[in-house]
TrEMBL record:
PROSITE patterns, alphabetized: PBP
Membership in a protein family: Belongs to the phosphatidylethanolamine-binding protein family.
Matching InterPro entries: PEBP, PEBP-like_sf, PEBP_euk, Phosphatidylethanolamine-bd_CS
Family matches, as PANTHER family: PHOSPHATIDYLETHANOLAMINE-BINDING PROTEIN, PROTEIN TERMINAL FLOWER 1
Protein name per the record: Uncharacterized protein
Source organism (scientific name): Colocasia esculenta (Wild taro)
Superkingdom in the source lineage: Eukaryota
Pfam family, one: PBP
Length: 173
């Protein structure tokens, strides 16, 4: 499973956002029902306006998961002073289902990078029990590690990220 973490290390997701972990479930993230999110791939912001489908494959119906989506490069990668900007939190997702079966704690905010190439990171945590996660106070200066510690979530069980940058008008056509 160490090879599965390599893109997260190269993309500095492990280090800047997460500590190293061992993936124990599979998380499949797709936009518009056919655009699969793979580590380091690029998406245009116009392709990620609507919230994605996030499937949890593994675990069982008695397990519950928390999904966090964050941008560690806000407002720009050269000076990410808002690190991290929170885009979405869904809790109480039953194992073997998708995020639509969970409780949306922080509504999906579509990515709108203005400066440079941003990473958008999806992190999945296994909850110790249902209804045990508290919402953060703000979207800016969110800290995935601190959020996990405050809610007793431990290390992630899965993570994936994609890159996005501002679209020119010509690209949107």
């Amino acid at each position: 499973m160490a090879r599965a973490l390599e893109p997260l290390v190269v993309g500095r997701v492990i280090g800047e956002v997460l500590d190293s972990f061992s993936p124990t479930v599979k998380m499949v993230v797709t936009y518009n029902s056919n655009k699969l999110v793979c580590n380091g791939h690029e998406f245009y912001p116009s392709a990620v306006v609507s919230r994605p489908r996030v499937e949890v494959q593994g675990g069982d119906m008695r397990s519950f998961f928390t999904l966090v989506m964050t941008d560690p490069d806000a407002p720009g990668p050269s000076d990410p002073y808002l690190r991290e900007h929170l885009h979405w939190i869904v809790t109480d997702i039953p194992g073997t289902t998708d995020a639509s079966f969970g409780k949306e704690m922080v509504g999906y905010e579509s990515p709108r990078p203005n400066i440079g190439i941003h990473r958008f990171v999806f992190v999945l945590f296994k909850q110790k029990r249902r209804q045990s996660v508290n919402p953060p106070s703000a979207r800016d200066q969110f800290n995935t590690r601190q959020f996990a510690a405050e809610n007793d979530l431990g290390l992630p069980v899965a993570a994936v990220y994609y890159n996005a940058q501002r679209e020119t008008a010509a690209r949107r056509r």
